[in-house]
Amino acid sequence: MLTEKPVIDDLIEALPSRLNLKARSLLVTVWGDSVAPHGGTVWLGSLIDLVGSLGLNERVVRTSVFRLKQDGLLDSQQSGRRSFYTLTRTGQHRFEEATRRIYNHEPRSWCGSWTLLFTERRKLSEDQKRQLQTELGWLGFGDLGSGIFAHPGGTYKSVARLLNDLDLSDHVAVMEAGSLPEQKSVPVHILVQKGWNIEEIETGYNEFIRNFSPLLVALREQSALDTKKCFITRTLLVHDYRRALLKDPMLPDPLLPESWSGQMARDLFRDLYQLVWQGAEHHLMDVLETTNGKLPDASEEFLSRFGGLLEA
């Protein structure tokens, strides 16, 4: 007699096709969520074994890792016939910033100030302008046009580090601006409309909610899930949330619509992550290897995600 497959298995198996996965982007997710918290270095062979469960074959993984190395995010070293990949200094900075955005669940306060960036466009190549725009977008800056970018209260430390990594510190002026004292009501919605497509951002969050809400319900009803499925779920959860978050400047509440899907998406992300993180960790420890063999324990930063990960 055939036994009926659990609903949760169907939901997990359907996720890859729903999410339209790209190998390079998925490996960035794996590195940030799974490898970086364990020291940031991994044997390529064990990484290939790990992501096979996500549908990535050896050729695709090798090509994607090579491109990440070309982008300056990874470096490699050889030990015998084994290749080990580790985060570069620039890679560490990118993943630290991403971690701060993805796993921080605290609402942002805002004093009403804006950080403005003025770029020396005529002296930048097209590649430099494109990379700067992409990286500033990830930091939450809106593109106001004519080489000007803005963010409400954007941190100077993150901007300065980015400009230094891109070797563009001498081509970008950073300033802080606020309203004039005599202005009683500042039409900040003009900046928001010009810098960000709020409707598009909210659409991304709504897609994430549709993709993962049924899985949260099923997981709460079926507590037992093997470690490999925990890893698959956790990785795809982070990957899809990162996709939605990538376009979100994390604007303070006063600049957001009254009904904002971003908070619902963050709550869903946190609740589902808390249910699968521990099982996924067991799978990582079983599969991944570093230059010293066994994968080191996760960092304190990892355990402090969402204000503290809960153990089952």
Rg (C-alpha, Å): 21 Å
Order of helices and strands: HHEHHEEHEHEEHEHHHHEEH
Q: Helical proportion?
A: 40-55%
> Going across the major beta sheet, what is the strand order?
5-6-4-7
General shape: globular
Average pLDDT score? 88
| Number of discrete helical segments | 12
Low-confidence stretches: none
Share in β-strands: 5-15%
Number of strands: 9
In whole angstroms, how far apart are the ends? 34 Å
SS content category: alpha+beta
Largest sheet: 4 strands, antiparallel
Describe the structure.
The structure is a single chain. The protein has helices at 7-19, 23-35, 44-51, 58-70, 89-103, 126-138, 156-165, 189-195, 198-221, 227-245, 261-287, 300-303, and strands at 41-43, 74-79, 82-87, 114-119, 142-145, 148-151, 172-177, 289-290, 293-294. The protein is α+β, with helices and mostly antiparallel strands and 312 residues long. Among the domains are: 113-178, Alpha-Beta Plaits (2-Layer Sandwich); 196-279. The strands form three sheets. Strands 5-6-4-7 form a four-stranded antiparallel sheet. Helix 2 packs across helix 4, helix 5 (89-103) packs antiparallel against helix 7 and helix 9 crosses helix 11 (261-287). The mean pLDDT is 88.
